[in-house]
Structure prediction request, 112 residues.
Amino acid sequence: MGDEISSRFFSWIKENGLTYAEVAPHLNISISALSTYKTRGLPNKQKPMAKKLMENWSEIVSVRERNREEQTLIAKVPAWKFNQYNGLALSRGSLITDWIVAILDEELEKNS
Prediction:
């Protein structure tokens, strides 16, 4: 691996018992791309997302747990569009679920 961030990221995946299938969507990449990046290092575009993912993983897990207790809203969108949404949310320092809920809450307030 070519750099410290990539090395830390792939160690973090292993230490947390995560699969590439769980991690790849959060970086807007395929599982095979993530596997390739393990030897080559993460591209610069994915490094900030990888850092955010490591920092926010406990929140993501918490949201998963909370969703088991609350009603879940399912939105079916193509994978490429989901990846764009996820990338946008992460670039703004937010988890996609929190970002979507905030947008929906704003719309409710406007229409109340």
The radius of gyration is 15 Å.
